[in-house]
Design a protein that fits this description.
With about 475 residues, the chain is α+β, with helices and mostly antiparallel strands. The protein is built from 15 helices and 19 strands. Helix 5 crosses helix 7 (about 195-220), helix 7 (about 195-220) crosses helix 9 (about 245-260) and helix 8 (about 225-235) packs across helix 9 (about 245-260). The radius of gyration is 23 Å and the shape is globular. Pfam families: AllG.
Length: about 475
């Protein structure tokens, strides 16, 4: 009797039996959409069949293509450095903004509370931790997400009244976005530290670095950040955990003007070394402002299911979706799959945090990990080949590939652009984010780096809300 040729649909556990018994078979790597959830399958089917125009074309696909085109056309240019109170309406000394979706003081994680305490010390509103805590408990301090004010910040993301901010204009569409100046390494406020050295460095950024850097940027006529990001990808950066090339490319753009404006300045060497030598992550904040200026252009496109923001406050992970405006869809943050510094482990780690996942919304960072072989082991990936697989899988959940940002290590294919919540829910593939890991206690600082994803629940809830809005 002849042997049957078996077609196996996605059940890996059957394969050894076929091999052992010499049974001809064809294996299809197939999974049911939405992990077999019938409610979600029904939503996806209705979205595909009911939301069509008179020609039968998908209204969602057309809206998502509009979002893709707007993001690809964006030209983020660094224009100047300003101060938070100059650009945020009605900001006072008692106003502080933070990373992630909204959260109450009593619900904040240790590093976030530590950063708030530091910000109050920096602004001269408190001299001790106890005074700062009492002020936060009093209700006198107004606080909320950076994203509400065209701003982003890494990790805790503190933005207070006196802080200098990079101003980036998307010259294609005229909108602006802002981010703080990267503090450098060691004990820093973005990881929840708030000691005297942290406050002293922040004052140095405000009073010494920012004025000189602002003059150099203006004298240079601005700096096109998209050009730098494109070139840095070809030099091994992914612009989230590795910014070595991008930081040096930025310095090259402003080095002449910076030398001119710091001539005779006693702080000239410290200024130059901070930008060009002592802070490999200097460009991260610029990449965040650049991608924020790009992602903001796709807000409120009817029928669009592209993610316009991803952000974390150390407790909850939140996303915004284009057609749903500033509505947050939240679920508890995950802990990164991380490589920890000596002496630390997962038990020490705070759940994921920061506005920096805005760069993944533009297809860089973890989405483009295949561009940055040197970052693979630092973020805990097993191999360069695994990084390629991560990047390839991102193509399955995005609108298209942005050839303005090619990845040389992957045959110059463009980064995957436009995370589509429909595709995420259907495939079960989540966006990959490269991230730093903060200690769960305030003041300890960074204890590692790794890979994390949004919780699937945020994508599911966003899809359900979208369906409730558009389906009759």
């Amino acid at each position: 009797m002849s042997k049957h040729n078996v077609i196996n649909l996605g059940v890996d556990s059957f394969l050894p039996a076929f091999v052992q018994n010499d049974i001809p078979h064809t294996h299809l790597d197939w999974k049911p959409p939405a992990q077999g959830n019938t409610e979600l399958i029904d939503i996806l089917f209705r979205l595909a069949t009911e939301l069509v125009d008179e020609k039968g074309d998908s209204l969602i696909d057309k809206a998502n293509q509009t979002a893709f085109d707007k993001m690809r056309q964006g030209q983020p240019v660094l224009k100047r450095i300003c101060f938070a109170h100059e650009i945020i309406p009605n900001m006072t000394k008692k106003t502080i903004f933070h990373a992630g979706p909204p959260i109450d003081w009593n619900d904040m994680c240790g590093p976030m509370q530590g950063a708030f305490i530091g910000a109050l010390k920096y602004e001269g509103l408190a001299s001790t931790d106890d005074e700062a805590r009492a002020l936060m408990q009093s209700g006198e301090i107004t606080y909320g997400p950076n994203h509400y004010n065209q701003c982003v910040g890494p990790m805790t993301g503190m933005i207070s009244y006196s802080m200098p901010l990079f101003e980036v204009e998307n010259e294609t569409f005229g909108n602006k976005a802002y981010c703080t100046i990267n503090e450098g390494i060691g004990k820093v406020m973005r990881f929840g530290a708030n000691g005297p050295d942290v406050i002293e460095r922040l004052h140095w950024l405000e009073k010494v670095l920012a004025p000189a850097l602002n003059k150099a940027i203006i004298e240079a006529g601005g700096v096109n950040l998209k050009n730098i990001m494109s070139q840095a990808l070809t030099m091994g950066d992914e612009m989230h955990q590795r910014n070595v090339a991008a930081s040096l490319l930025f310095y090259r753009q402003i080095s002449g003007p910076l030398a001119s404006v710091t001539q005779g300045n006693k702080d000239a060497q410290a200024i130059v070394e901070f930008v060009a030598k002592k802070n490999d992550q200097f460009f991260l904040n610029l990449a965040m402002a650049a991608t924020k200026s790009i992602a903001d252009t796709i807000r409120d496109i009817p029928y669009c299911t592209v993610v316009s923001a991803m952000s974390r406050n150390g407790v909850n992970f939140g996303i915004n979706v284009s057609s749903l405006g500033y509505t947050w869809f939240e679920a508890p943050c995950l802990k990164p799959n991380a490589l920890y510094f000596p002496g630390y482990s997962e038990e020490d780690a705070n759940p994921d945090m920061g506005d920096s996942a805005i760069v993944e919304c533009y297809g860089i960072g973890g989405m483009a990990m295949g561009a940055a072989p040197a970052v693979v082991r630092f973020v805990g990936a097993e191999s360069v080949h695994e990084a390629f697989r991560y990047t390839e899988r991102m193509r399955e959940i995005t609108v298209g590939m942005n050839n303005d940002l090619p990845i040389p290590t992957m045959d110059f294919a463009g980064v995957s652009l436009g995370i589509d919540i429909r595709k995420v829910v259907s495939t079960g593939i989540l966006p990959v984010i490269n991230t730093g890991v903060a200690h769960k206690e305030a003041g300890v600082g960074q204890v590692g780096a790794g890979i994390v994803t949004p919780p699937m629940d945020v994508m599911v809830e966003a899809l359900k809300a979208f369906a409730a809005k558009v389906l009759k």
